[in-house]
Amino acid sequence: MKNLHLILFLFFYTQTNAQVKDLHGSPDETYFANNDLGKHFNKLTNLIDQYAENEIKKGNINSIALAIYKNGEIFHNYYGEIDKNNQNKPNDNTLYEIASISKVFVGSLAAKAVLEKRIKLDDDIRMYMVEKYPNLEYQGIPITIKNLLTHTLGFKTKIPEKLAEVNKKTTEGYYENRPFDYNMSTFLEELKTVELDKKPGTVYDYNSIGSELMSYILEQVYHKTYKDLLQDFLNELDMKNTYLQNYQEHKKYLANSYTSSGELAPLDKNPLLGGGYGIITTLPDLIKLMKFQLGSDNPLIKESTKILFEDDEDNVMGYLWQDMGFGKEEGFYYSKTGDANGVRSGILISPDSKYGQIVIINNKSDLAINDWEILFNKIETDLIKYPKLNLQSVLKSQFITNPQLAKKSFDVLSKKEDIYFNTNLQFTLNSLGYDLLYNDKEVNKAIKLFEFATKEYPKNANLFDSLGEAYFVNKDYKKAILNYKKSLKLNPNNENAKKQISEINKF
What is the spatial order of strands in the sheet that 96-97 belongs to? Predict the structure, then answer.
């Protein structure tokens, strides 16, 4: 049975003759005696390397670019190949489409305009528009700057009809080698046909229209093109390898990406200003954005990460940052993901815990996105707990190859709670078993580990339930029922076991 808070982990650790070794494979007694754990950032990065390599081995992701920031220390690396079997590993020059992460740059520029008192969050957006738009209100309530920044426009349809058709054809590759027959002027004219059926500021509906309109308003306020405004901001951050829409000029370094069907994905070109999507950048440049967010006292950061909207559906928005909130351990955090036609990227910032992370892949299948999420969550958990290391990850390999010896190591290391977290062996065995079963798709290894666990803890109903599930996945229904019944004997209130036995008996 899965623990509700189960987080599955990967690791890097070996041991011979019951002698504890460090993460590089050599004895390191001083490490375990040293209380200055801040010197062991490389231990964490070794684990993260292994997490990424494991996701690449599954075969769903071509390549990974990732970076972490913790307490001022930075690590980044690349894995796999951009194009399978081409030996073209990504590097610091590789450019990626970051899609909707482009929105946070608009948000920062909007925050700057607020601080400079050029705009106000509650301003009616029509104050800054050249033509008249009597339709951009609902029952007398207008769309405001804040609504643009929080995806709460109140539109009846998410996107105007003609623009929706252009976007569809872009996704199909129609505009790959053709100029757009739609631009910002066309959009502003089509905007006159939009209807609102909700009060602005009340219903979250994710879109790129708000950020494009915000870009347009910034142009009116500053009397400069959005591209120039963006470039000024990029210059402040020293992001010298970040570009807006300029695909052809940088094609040599632009990473290929792949659709859900494994086909080469068309570029995610934007016919408008580029506020919603359209930025291409390198991992080192994104690291500069992450450092700016975490290592600067610029008042722009505080303003741009204010919570401007939240609802009962857990939608929490700042200046186009999203998934904002407060964690019990990490404190305040905010993030943004981007999905181009063949790229998934994500950046997460936690200023209270002084950590950040970036993970980019160049595949968009469901399996690839699932693997991206697994990797992203594992890295975040380790960053929250650092300088402690994840003991599950450290000993996973040994638990697979020699569980008896791994248990002896675990018994020794789990006492060092100033160095490790996840020091409950029963939880660890259950967690690693599910990692093997569902993340690694190693059913037989999962069964072997659960068998070991039930022998070590014969009174643990949850472990027998998990073993029953592993046998069920392996379609060995006889053994599945046997172990579910053992679980029920130990815990007559195990509703999951009752349900599973009932389902199997229907076969």
Answer: 96-97, 279-281, 243-244
Helical segments of 116-225, H only: 145-149, 161-171, 184-190, 209-222
Q: Which residues contact 493 (CB under 8 A, 6 or more apart)?
A: none
| Secondary structure (DSSP) of 469-494 | HHHHHTT-HHHHHHHHHHHHHH-TT-
CB distance 35 to 418 below 8 Å: yes
How far apart CA 421 and CA 387 sit, in angstroms, is 10
Nearest to 46 by CA among 23, 67, 79, 25: 23
Q: Which residues make beta-bridge pairs with 389?
A: 420
Reported confidence tier of residue 15, pLDDT bands at 50, 70, 90: very low
82, 255 in Cβ contact below 8 A?
Answer: yes
DSSP 8-state code for residue 154: -
Residue 193 CA to residue 196 CA, distance in Å, equals 10
Query: Given this model, what pLDDT does residue 136 score?
Result: 98
Whole-model pTM: value is 0.89
DSSP state of 267: P
Distance CA(111)–CA(235), nearest Å, equals 17
CA-CA-CA-CA torsion sign (436, 437, 443, 448): positive
Q: Is the bond into 387 cis (omega within 30 degrees of 0)?
A: yes
The tokens describing 69, both together, are: 């920031």
**Per-residue tokens: 130:** 């050249």
Tell me which amino acid residue 123 is. D
Could you read off the pLDDT of 316-335 as tens digits, one per residue?
999 999 999 999 999 999 99
Select from 225, 235, 338, 334 the least CA-distant residue to 279.
338
DSSP 363: B
How far apart CA 287 and CA 239 sit, in angstroms, is 9
